[in-house]
Amino acid sequence: NFLEIGCGSGIQCIVAAKKASVKKVVGVDLNEQAVGLSEKNAALNGVAGKCLFFKSNLFSTLEKLHQIPAKFDCIAFNPPYLPTKQEDKVKGKYNLALDGGLTGRRQMDEFILAVKKHLAPQGIVLLLSSSLSCSKEFEDGNKETLAKLEKEGFKAGIVGRHKLFFEELAVFRAQPLQ
Fold this sequence. Notes:
Layout: E1 2-5, H1 11-17, E2 25-29, H2 32-44, E3 51-55, E4 72-77, H3 106-114, E5 119-130, H4 141-151, E6 154-163, E7 168-176
Parallel strand pairs: 1-2, 1-4, 2-3, 4-5
Antiparallel strand pairs: 5-7, 6-7
C-alpha cells in the first residue's frame, strides 16, 4: 500500500500503481484541483482502479476515512519547502505547493512528527528535503531533516541528491528502528 502526501498531478501515485506488487495507492493534496488532476491522470494511465485521491492536510482526512488502508508500506512526501515571508507568497492555490513557512519546514516537521503512526512496521518513508529549509539552530535543512527523523525513531539516509546553484535537494529514505 502506497501513500503520497501532496500528490499534485499524481505522477508518483501512477508510477506506484503500475507496479504489480502495489495493491492500493492513496494520494492526498490540500488543493482540490490537484486531487481532480490526479484522478484524471490515473484514469488516463489505466490505473484508476488501484487509486484513491482525497483532499487532505497531511493525514487529517485519512484518519476519518474507512476505505483506505490502516497502515502504508511506503509513504512519500515532496513538501512545500521554500522559506516564505508574506511578500514571497504566490497568489492563488499554487502557493500551497511552495510555501513552507518562514523556515521552509512547517509541513515537513509536522509530517515527520505524524508519519510513524501511519506506517506499516517494515514500511519506508521517502521525503524530499532542501538545504534551504532550516531553523535557526541548524545551518542546513538536510542535516536538520536527518536529525529530526532520527529523533522520531527512524534510521534514515539520503538516497538521491541534486545540487543547484543555491540549494541542495535530497531525498531521504527512512524506516522505523525496530
